[in-house]
């Protein structure tokens, strides 16, 4: 099994490589009657696009969506929705020098060990380019969740390198800056940090948080289909993700039970350390998730590695790369949150009506 499909009832299957002719996905299980068009999906894709600022990869893809099936007269038919996007700005020659070398920290080595062969152009399936189709599929799920259940999803950059960006939570600022930062007062610091990082040739990690509001109670299963387990799996499936927290996350280690438990009154819960999920099932509170992304591995700073024959080599990665993949990750985290919730909404409906 190559596991290119995500979800049980609302299923997304992605295909394509970073430097292939196109990328695409099949979305199966979408209920009929949802108004959808390419322009709406492209609007979501623009939020994760490269080249929007000097702080991301300067690869500029058009990301024009072709809706090949599953939509008729502007509405979903209930049949598989096929979406394709042509790759129009790949520069494969930038990767010729590492065709037989492994970039430390990248998937090059493990892809070679697993398959005995790899597409070295831009990382193939391990490239962030693959996440384009997650955002496209997530846009469909997100629209259904909002229109049918009133569920609202919002992500933000919580930390970039050593800089916390969530000390001030102004949700209105998130879409008005290239970092998706809720704190406008740190934008100058972020700009300076990224300028310095880019000049040095190095990279940094980031933390992305997201919330889903108006999630009904009852989504998720008590044992093997826990909502939080599926969320963790979804987020860890994003390229470069290294850790996931639900609610208080790792902070719960230092909390006492009297603090961590979310007391309940006739007016509702008094806190939300659980992140809106108890026993694997949504409680009706906001669902909170946070994801840590590692520093990018494609760097122009020389480093030691080996080639496919086991010989010691020096690796310098050329081309256009993100010095911080987390800057563009907010729409991806939102999309995966939407896909998980959509799948569980359909599963709850199937089991309990």
Protein architecture, described:
With 353 residues, the protein is of the alpha+beta class. It has one domain: Chorismate synthase, AroC fold. The protein contains seven helices and 18 strands. It has helices at residues 38-48, 108-115, 131-149, 187-200, 227-236, 257-260, 330-352, and strands at residues 5-6, 11-16, 22-28, 65-69, 71-72, 75-76, 81-86, 152-160, 163-164, 206-213, 241-246, 264-265, 268-269, 277-278, 281-282, 287-293, 303-306, 312-315. It has a five-stranded antiparallel sheet, with helices on one face. A hairpin with a 2-residue loop joins strand 14 (277-278) and strand 15. Helix 1 packs across helix 3. The longest helix has 23 residues, at 330-352. It is globular and about 65 Å long.
What are the defining features of this structure?
353 residues; alpha+beta; Chorismate synthase, AroC fold; five-stranded antiparallel β-sheet; 7 helices
The structural domain count equals 1
Kindly estimate the percentage of residues that lie in beta strands according to DSSP. 15-25%
Structural Rg: 21 Å
Can you tell me the residue ranges where pLDDT is under 50 for at least 5 consecutive residues? none
Overall pLDDT metric: 93
Helix vs. strand class: alpha+beta
CATH fold naming: Chorismate synthase, AroC fold
| Reported CATH architecture | 4-Layer Sandwich
Order of helices and strands: EEEHEEEEHHEEHEHEHEEEEEEEH
* CATH structural class: Alpha Beta
Shape: globular
**Distance, first to last CA:** 32 Å
Largest sheet: 5 strands, antiparallel
Contiguous helical run count: 7
For the biggest β-sheet, the strand order reads 1-2-3-7-4
Name of the CATH homologous superfamily: Chorismate synthase AroC
